[in-house]
Structures are given as C-alpha cells and as structure tokens.
Amino acid sequence: MVKVWVNADACPDAIREILYRAAERAAFPLILVANRMLQVPRSPWIRMVQVPRGFDAADQHIVTESRAGDLVITADIPLAAAVVGKGVSALNPRGELYTRDNVQGLLDMRNFMDSLRSSGVETGGPRTLNSSDRQRFASALERWIAQHPRNQ
C-alpha cells in the first residue's frame, strides 16, 4: 500500500488538518516525520515518527523510507528532488506538484536565491499560505488519491 510522508517540522497546521481528514476518509497510511513530537489524531491510518535532532534528519528518514508510488508533502526543494529521483511523488503545501520535469529548475533557483542571501542580498521570503493555497493543495491531494484507488 502506498503511503503519504509529511516533512512535518515545517508543514503548516492547516495542511496537516487536510491530510488528517483525507487519510481517515481514503484509508491511506499518513506518516508525519519531525524532530519534535507532534500531537496527531488517534487513528490506525496516522502515525508520528520522531527522528533525532540534527540537520535534515527528517528529510533523510523520508528519503530512506519512502518508496516509488508514495507521496511526500514538503516545501523543501532538495528533499523533493531526492524523492522524485527515486519515483516518489512530491507535493508542496501550496498544491504544486514536483516532477522530474520541474524539480531541477526549482532546485537551481532555490540554490541561486540561497547564494544571493549568503552574499547579503535581501530576497524576502515566501508569502503566507492563504485559502487559495489550501484549496489548491486539497485539490491536488484529491487527484493523487483518485490515481491510487487501491487505498480506498
């Protein structure tokens, strides 16, 4: 059975709530991975994995444990690139799907912006997650669920 992995340290609460409801309704395993304990609903479909503190410990756990066909929820582009490269789908909290066709360009842009910030250039940050983003995420998740009917 395919699983949904969540890079939970930075996942917005509103997105986690959408995921909790979807996991219960569609009966798929939802695994939240973080370096701190999170409260999750009691459910046979939802579990929390706490990894040791450390740089990218949650990312490494997800890369190691996810399998082709799974879905990873993350805004972390290097993590998305790593899992997409092994046949795992990746979706960000704004409902944008990372693919083999777009992830390298996104990674290159992320690295470029990081180098600008390192040199002192003010680049700003991502805009606040809004209701349109949440709706786009919920719709993208529903499309993924529909493509994986064995979970239902």
Explain how this protein is built.
The chain is of the alpha/beta class and 152 residues long. Helices cover 41% and strands 14% of the residues. It contains 5 helices and 6 strands. It has a 6-stranded mixed β-sheet, sandwiched between helices. The longest helix is centred in the C-terminal third of the chain and has 16 residues, at 103-118. It is globular and about 50 Å long. The N and C termini lie close together (10 Å). The relative contact order is 0.17. The model has no long low-confidence stretch (mean pLDDT 89).
Strand content: 5-15%
- Classification by helices and strands: alpha/beta
For the largest beta sheet, what order do the strands appear in spatially?
3-2-1-4-5-6
Q: What's the gyration radius in Å? A: 15 Å
The profile of the biggest β sheet is: 6 strands, mixed
Number of helices: 5
| Strand element count | 6
pLDDT below 50 for ≥5 consecutive residues: which ranges? none
Termini Cα gap: 10 Å
Helix fraction by DSSP (H/I, runs of at least 4):
40-55%
- The succession of helices and strands, N to C, reads EHEEHEHEEHH
What characteristic shape results from the CA principal axes? globular
Mean pLDDT: 89
In short:
This protein is an alpha/beta fold. Helix content is 41%, strand content 14%. It has five helices and six strands.
Topology:
Layout (H helix, E strand, L loop, with lengths): L3 E4 L5 H14 L3 E5 L11 E5 L6 H9 L5 E3 L3 H8 L4 E3 L5 E2 L4 H16 L12 H16 L6
Helix pairs in contact: 1-5, 3-4
